[in-house]
User: Fold this.
Amino acid sequence: MANNKVALVTGSGKRRVGSHVAEALAQRGYSVAVHYRSSAIEAKELVDRLRALGVESVGYQADLTNEQFVKQLVEAVVDRFGRLDVLVNCAAMWERKRLEDVTAYDVKQHFETNALATFLCTQHAGLAMVSQPEGGSIITLGDWAEARPYLDYAAYFPSKGAVSTMTRSLAVELGTRNPRVRVNCILPGPVMLPPELSLAERQQAIDGTLVKREGSPDNIAQAVLALVENDFITGACLPVDGGRTIFAP
Assistant:
C-alpha cells in the first residue's frame, strides 16, 4: 500500500486543466494516477514531471464512456497503490456548432463524455472509497454557464448541466454509505479559453467577469485543493469564474 495518499485525475494527459490539477496534488505529496484516452505521449511527459517532484505516478489509458473500462481503471489504480483518496473528473469535450447543425450524435457524444463518464468514474471510485475507513474526496467539473448559457454550444451545456445534479445525488448516495466520502463540483469560468475564439470573443468573455481578466488552470487547481482539504464540504457546486455567474454586463 502506498504511504502517500493517492489521486486519480481523469483527462490529465493533455496539457490542460487536468494536468495542472495533477501537478498541484503531486506538490501536496499525493501519488498521482494520470488518466488519458489518446494523448499517450503527453501523459508520459506529465508522469515524468511528477516523478521528478519525488512522487509516485503512473499513466493509465481508458475510454471512460465504457463502464467495464472504468471499473478496470479504478481496480488497476487501487491494486497498484493500495488505496484511492481523491478523484478529480477533468476529462471533457466541447464542440462549437450552430443549433441548426447539431445532430443527435453530437448530443449523445457530449452526454457520454461529459455526463456518463463523470458518473461512471464517480460511481466506481466512490464505491472503492466507501470501503476505506478514511473515505475519500471526489471533485467533478461542470461549467459556470449552465446558469447563463451562451450561443452555439447547445449540445455541450445540457451535458455539463447534468454534472451539478449528479454531484448532489452522488454526494448523498456515497455519504450515506460512508460519511467520510464527499463529492463536490467546481464550475469553471474563463480559465483556458478555446484557441479558436476570436480576439473580440475573448475580450467579451473577460469583460463579462468582475475581476476583468482571464483566469488560469491554477485557479481551478487551487479550488480542487480547497475542496479536498476541507472535510466539512460535500454536495457543493463552487463557481470559479471571476464573478461571471452573478454579473450581467
